[in-house]
């Protein structure tokens, strides 16, 4: 097991490398919001897909500023945060948490400026409008009958808005969404489905399916890690033990099914997968395990989750996964998979993989959670 001092030194190298990559990115592609690389070069979102990644570049810039104190990164973080402000009223996506939590929430936490908080509140109110009362869930961009496991990473914005405004209706929307997701997309063994389909007339849950996993009854790794992080966040806001128990079940499934290095394939059930790793899922998991360790503080489980988060970070900071010895590569974290069925972003860097790698290292180096 890597020591804290050894991993801290690795974290310093990760942030140093990230600073160089971000500087090059911002200067080479000004005001571009990258999503994934193609042969190591940054690309934007595929036309026609939902735009859900615009918060991660600003978020990485905030993290590098917070760790290094270098003013240039703060200036860029503010700039890229401002570029997404208009999305606060975007009713077409379920991903407003991904856009505003890494950017405006980080900015507000640092300054306490009320005008920044108002942007977060408006975004949370917008997201809450996706609630389907009969089924009890926030619907995905696919349509009113669709529930995505990904939304567990966005529902925290609704909880936060309810907390800030005292709006009980918003609180109930967020809470019921988590219960519905737990009931319909989390299985008894701690695995997860990507998507659930509902009958709009009755609200009845019909079936599990997937957009990015192997099959509807398999377990897409990134989806499970979204849920691991998201149910931990739901417990943080509610203290509802059902959500903590769910996060633990997800964590246990991840540990049981993943190789000792801590990096899963795209889907655990797919036989003979063509790519061995989905590194962005591992980076998200590292954050989820770290937060879960803090939520379980003082217990035997906390030590287990803490050590597992460090195991993942130790692996992801090796040259097998960090691009610091891959000449010409523009991303930070290698071996991510964006959308396997669409053959997009296969074995590449993903902007959210880079973001969650830095978030996990930041939390470790500061010794605190970021929920």
A few lines on this structure:
This protein has 371 residues and is mostly helical. It has helices at residues 4-28, 54-68, 71-82, 96-111, 114-128, 155-165, 168-185, 221-238, 241-257, 279-295, 300-316, 351-366; strands at 36-38, 41-43, 131-132, 137-138, 146-148, 195-198, 205-209, 336-339, 344-348.
Describe this structure in words.
This protein has 371 residues and is mainly alpha-helical. The chain has one domain (4-365): Glycosyltransferase. 53% of the residues lie in helices and 8% in strands. The protein has helices spanning 4-28, 54-68, 71-82, 96-111, 114-128, 155-165, 168-185, 221-238, 241-257, 279-295, 300-316, 351-366, and strands at residues 36-38, 41-43, 131-132, 137-138, 146-148, 195-198, 205-209, 336-339, 344-348. The strands form 4 sheets. Strands 5-6-7 form a 3-stranded antiparallel sheet, covered by helices on one side. The protein has a two-stranded antiparallel ribbon with strand order 1-2. Strands 3-4 form a two-stranded antiparallel ribbon. A hairpin with a 2-residue loop joins strand 1 and strand 2. The radius of gyration is 19 Å and the shape is globular. The mean pLDDT is 96.
């Amino acid at each position: 097991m890597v020591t804290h001092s050894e991993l801290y030194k690795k974290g310093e190298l990760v942030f140093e490398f990230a600073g160089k990559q971000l500087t090059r990115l911002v200067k080479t592609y000004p005001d571009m919001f990258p999503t994934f690389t193609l042969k190591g070069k940054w690309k934007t979102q595929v036309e026609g897909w939902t735009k859900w990644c615009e918060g991660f570049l600003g978020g990485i810039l905030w993290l590098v500023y917070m760790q290094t104190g270098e003013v240039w990164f703060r200036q860029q973080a503010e700039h890229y945060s401002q570029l997404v402000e208009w999305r606060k009223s975007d009713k077409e996506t379920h991903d407003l948490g991904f856009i505003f939590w890494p950017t405006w929430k980080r900015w507000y936490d640092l300054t306490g400026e009320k005008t920044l908080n108002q942007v977060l509140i408006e975004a949370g109110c917008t997201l809450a409008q996706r609630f389907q009362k009969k089924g009890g869930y926030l619907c995905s961009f696919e349509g009113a009958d669709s529930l995505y496991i990904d939304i567990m990473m966005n529902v925290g914005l609704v909880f936060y808005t309810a907390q800030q405004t005292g709006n009980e209706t918003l609180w109930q929307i967020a809470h019921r969404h988590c219960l519905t997701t737990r009931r319909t997309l989390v299985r008894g063994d701690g695995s997860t489905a990507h998507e659930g389909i509902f009958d709009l007339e009755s609200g009845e849950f019909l079936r599990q399916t997937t957009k990015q996993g192997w099959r509807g009854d398999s377990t897409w790794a990134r989806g499970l890690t979204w849920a691991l992080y998201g149910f931990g966040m739901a417990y943080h806001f509610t203290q509802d033990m059902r959500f903590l128990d769910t996060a633990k079940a997800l964590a246990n499934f991840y540990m049981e099914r993943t190789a000792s290095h801590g990096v899963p394939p795209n889907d655990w059930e797919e036989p003979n997968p063509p790519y061995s790793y989905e590194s962005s899922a591992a980076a998200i998991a590292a954050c989820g395990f770290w937060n879960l360790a803090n939520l379980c503080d003082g217990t035997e489980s906390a030590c287990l989750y803490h050590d597992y988060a460090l195991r993942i970070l130790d692996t992801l900071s090796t040259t097998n996964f960090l691009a610091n010895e891959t000449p010409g590569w523009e991303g930070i974290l290698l071996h991510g998979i964006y959308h396997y069925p669409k053959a997009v972003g296969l074995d590449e860097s993903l902007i959210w993989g880079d973001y969650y790698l830095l978030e996990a290292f930041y939390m470790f180096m500061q010794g605190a959670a970021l929920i």
